[in-house]
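TA notes. Do not distribute before section.
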Amino acid sequence: MTDSRRDAGKAEIAHELNNLLAAIQGNADLMRGDFAGVAAITEGLDEIDKAVTRARDLARRLLLDSSALVEAAPAESRPLLQARPAPHASRGQTILIADDEEPVRRVASRLLARNGYAVREAANGAEALQVLAAAHGAIDLLVSDIIMPEMGGLELARRVANEFPNVPILLISGYSDGQELGQSFPSHLDLLQKPFSGTELTAAVAKCVARGKQGKAG
């Protein structure tokens, strides 16, 4: 196996592990919530168990190649959104979440719904555009993963800026080294790194929704 192929494989595994960590952390946040009942805790434990099983399989893949050392890359060059406590509770805004990883999409939807948001979901960029078109302006924020099949987050962001200019965008990424960003990441977009906590997600969403309101008012 060439070094380039090995590096690409390591990046894919790191991306999926970050997605799994986001699902585990999000479900843990939901289980700690004030309104977590037996059904919610049972569902959370089941989702965590699935994520842990998949993470264990990925770890075995890494161990098969003794040279596949996972190294943390510096994050100074990435325009990460600084998370802070959400300044205001949701007033019924609608958030569209586009992510091809169902566990991440599902737990993000539950976290936002618990904080008062209405949530729509899409499995890729093309599906997200369909949801936006059908919503007729009722989407207050698009939260999109960067790497997705059919249409990724960066292309989706460009399409949304042209076709739905009043919809603010928050991009999320499961890569730790920014390989998928390259030099093309728009400086005006916000980026939230996976794995993120429920507090970080809701804070980022609240900030972007508030900025979108200011833009519409202006």
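Switch to the second chain here.
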Amino acid sequence: MYNSDNPLSDDFYRPSEWYVMGKTVHASRMIDLISRPVPDMLKPAYNFGGLSLVQIAEPYVNNWLRTRDSVGDMLHSFSLSGIMTDMSQALTGKRDSNYAKRAELFNRTRDSRGLLMLDKQKEEFFQFNTPLSGLDTLQAQAQEHMFFVSAIPSVKFAGLSPTGLNASSEG
């Protein structure tokens, strides 16, 4: 039970009793430890306990998950390959199944374990590569943002050893 009628009262939005394991306990027997208080109007919605760390950290965790997935996607598709060929018949609207078959064959064999064969008279191979440097730094920074919310060092939070400043694993 809590008083929400009289804002001038000492027990305004302060529960007078709590229910603990199905029994009523007077509020004087409980210690309030609220590290992130919320406004009085929101206290019942947060069970008079304040904002939880999980709620504060959620956007940072979602950002790290999105960054992790993006780095994985970038590693999987860091290069774009293609074949320059005579497309004049295909662009005029004539249906030629050889172009579709050629594209399908190229897509099936384009990984580094496949064999690529070109007609040196009509085709030319090209490739655009995306640099991968710095992806590990971006992912590490996104992970560190999660640690900042809790104010716990990354060494303690996740067991990550610091880099730089002549830090080494040797005693």
